[in-house]
Every structure is written in structure tokens, then in C-alpha cells.
Amino acid sequence: MTADSSETWFIADLVEAINVAGHPEVIVHVNKILISAKSSSAAFLKAKELGRQSSMRYKNAAGETVSVRFLGLFQLNLINGDLEDGVELSHERLSVGSLEAAKAMVKNKGALALFRPEKKFDGPDYVDASLMELFMRDVETSRLESESQSGQKKSGGRKPARRQKGRPSED
């Protein structure tokens, strides 16, 4: 999605509450989304509308009803600059006691979410059963393509690699 030249980019944090029938726990997602709008007020209204559209009900793999309800906005900020490498999307202003305290906030590569192994979620299963089925089919297709490519490499043939959704490769 591209904005026309008279529109500005904003970043919105949408708050969703997720309930799985029969489970008392409420799961909260704070989803960061891009908004293209002509003004701050228009961005606010658009973010709320997109949030309302995210409300839904579906069944998980166990057949339990999952309800996703948009609660509102946690944050809405202007993006100062064109969307390109290095543009600042948002910032947080913090006051810490010392330079050492500021340095302690910096994480090494292995501690960054992108490079950490995903932790097992102990809460109720809220994954849409139909999406999980599509995902599993995609995994199986990728596995078969990979096996096919391995066989072609042995015989000298080459097939272009399929791009995987999800995390980028580690370079």
C-alpha cells in the first residue's frame, strides 16, 4: 500500500483482547500497523476502523471458539520521513540514572526477538484452525520441494528456491 503524495505515514499500536472459550486467561496483542492519512485526526479514525475490522470469532484446532476484540489504541505516532531504510518509525523518551544504565539497555544479537528461539506459549491455543491447516500444507509443500531440489542437485538440475514467509534468513 502506498500513500499518495498529500498523505503522511503514521504508526499505530492497536490493542486486542483474545479470549478462548472455557479459559479464564485474556491474551493481549499490541499490533503495530502503518497508517497513511492526510492528518492526525484522519489517522486516528483510520486506525480505529482498521482495529474494529480485526475483531473476529473463529475455532481453534481443539474446536474451541476464539474471540478477538479490538479494545482501542495504545499509541499513534507520526513517522517523520519517507519510508525507506533507516527512517525512524517511532521513539521512546526515557530518563535513566547514568550512561551505564543506558548501556545496560542494549542487547546482543542473541537476545533480540528475531534471533531468540520462540518460547512455548503456556496460555490457551488461539490459533485459527483453518490458518494452521494452510500453514501445515505450506510446510509440507516446502519439504517436498526441498527434497525435489536435493534430488535435482544430485542429477545436476537446478530449481529456484521458494521464498519462505516468516523470519528472514540470518546473514
Subunit arrangement of the protein: single chain
- Between the first and last Cα atoms, what is the distance in angstroms? 28 Å
Helix-strand string:
EEHEEHH
Strand content: 25-35%
* Radius of gyration (Å): 21 Å
User: Segments where pLDDT lies below 50 for 5+ residues?
Assistant: 155-165
Shape: extended
Number of helices: 3
The secondary structure category is alpha+beta
**Biggest sheet features:** 4 strands, antiparallel
Q: How many strand elements?
A: 4
What is the average per-residue confidence, as pLDDT, rounded to a whole number? Answer: 85
Query: Biggest sheet: strands side by side, in what order?
Result: 2-1-4-3
Helical residue percent? 25-40%
How would you sum up this structure, described in words?
It is a single chain. The chain has 171 residues and is α+β, with helices and mostly antiparallel strands. Helices cover 27% and strands 25% of the residues. It has helices spanning 40-53, 99-104, 129-155; strands spanning 8-20, 26-37, 56-59, 65-78. Strands 2-1-4-3 form a 4-stranded antiparallel beta sheet. The relative contact order is 0.15. The model is unreliable at 155-165 (pLDDT under 50).
